[in-house]
Amino acid sequence: MLQPPPPSLLDKYHGDDVLPLYTGRVCVTGGEARHGRASGIARSDDGRLDVHLRLPEALGGPGDGTNPEQLLAASYAACFHGALTLLAARSGVALGDASVEAAVTFARDPVDGRFLLSADIRVSLPGVDRRLAAELVRHTERICPYAKMFRQGIRHAVTLIDEAAPPQQHGQS
In Gene Ontology terms, what is a biological process of this protein (predicted)? Predict the structure, then answer.
């Protein structure tokens, strides 16, 4: 039977360096159109995730697969829900049928003319006193790592990895 992690996961860490707990790895290949968003395949290193990526109809695609915005929304909602239930358990609050809905929007950026993402979370806590529910959601927003990422940004690195292909020289094809 599946069980949630223990509320002790919320205990504060005191250390000088980041303490990695888990790293998820996914590789996206371009698929038929050689384009990750249009025809990509996303696979995790453990094989648990294996999805076809497609442009949604709103962006001119067929909409017959998932897309990065849906995957990010699912990740954000799952993390927020998990943090919320841990916080409620630690506080002795029974949540019942709590649900978290995330919306991730792919949009044009008026600042640089390129693109940006925005995210919204909607939390439903039926049967929980409104004031208590608001307090739980406020505290969850502080501890959820995805909410923190959206609020503060995220450390990231982009690295070109060496492959076996020989380098092309100018003037050669």
Answer: response to oxidative stress
CB 125 within 8 A of CB 108: no
**Rounded-to-integer distance, Cα 77 and Cα 120, Å:** 10
Q: Are 137 and 122 in contact (CB under 8 A)?
A: no
Task: Indicate if 115 and 133 belong to the same structural domain.
Answer: yes
Q: Do 34 and 105 fall within a single domain?
A: no
Interacting residues of 170 by C-beta distance below 8 A, sequence separation 6+: none
- How do residues 99-143 score in pLDDT, each as one tens digit? 999 999 999 999 999 999 999 999 999 999 999 999 999 999 999
Instruction: Please count the structural domains in the chain.
Output: 2
Residue 155 near residue 148, CB atoms below 8 Å: no
Q: Is residue 171 part of a domain?
A: no
* Residue 146 to residues 26, 110, 126, Cα–Cα distance (Å): 17, 25, 23
Its pTM stands at 0.90
First vs last C-alpha separation in the chain? 58
The string of pLDDT tens digits covering residues 36-69 is 999 999 999 999 999 999 999 999 999 999 999 9
Domain extent at residue 92:
67-155
Q: How many CB atoms lie under 10 A from the CB of residue 30?
A: 14
Residue 161 lies in a domain: no
